[in-house]
């Protein structure tokens, strides 16, 4: 198992990222994910900056919808840690048990139809191509 870098063991570079995580999320808690990737400070910094830009910065997609998308990708990729952490974040943003169940149904259906389309090598309809809009 990867060593988790606690705040009191961290380098100044890692502490700066941890401090930004705490300030951005308005919490003192640092997730184990960040503590694990802190073993390589450049990866920690780059990953945090990307996640903050995509998941926290204002945009056209509602914060709850962002978390639902993250859960969908995490379920599809089989990342138990990400499923757990983003499900908790989605619940904090208002996701109900019914929404979670519906989301899982959508994920399962999309994975099934994706595999069928790939297996049958279905050609994309001209009307669906981005350049035709």
TrEMBL record:
Residues 42-121 form the Carboxymuconolactone decarboxylase-like domain. This is Carboxymuconolactone decarboxylase family protein. InterPro entries: AhpD-like (IPR029032), AhpD_core (IPR004675), CMD-like (IPR003779). PANTHER family: CARBOXYMUCONOLACTONE DECARBOXYLASE-LIKE DOMAIN-CONTAINING PROTEIN (PTHR35446:SF2), SI:CH211-175M2.5 (PTHR35446). Gene3D superfamilies: AhpD-like (1.20.1290.10). It comes from the Bacteria. It comes from Anabaena azotica FACHB-119.
């Amino acid at each position: 198992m990867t060593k988790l870098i606690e705040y009191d063991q961290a380098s100044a570079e890692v502490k700066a990222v941890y401090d930004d995580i705490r300030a951005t999320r308005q919490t003192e808690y640092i997730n184990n994910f960040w503590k694990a990737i802190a073993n390589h400070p450049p990866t920690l910094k780059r990953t945090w900056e990307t996640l903050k830009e995509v998941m926290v910065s204002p945009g056209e997609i509602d914060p709850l919808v962002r978390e639902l998308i993250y859960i969908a990708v995490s379920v599809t990729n089989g990342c138990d840690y990400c499923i757990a952490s983003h499900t908790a974040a989605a619940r904090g943003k208002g996701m109900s048990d019914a929404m979670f169940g519906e989301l899982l149904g959508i994920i399962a259906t999309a994975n099934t139809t994706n595999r069928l389309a790939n297996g049958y090598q279905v050609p994309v309809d001209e009307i669906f191509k981005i350049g035709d809009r």
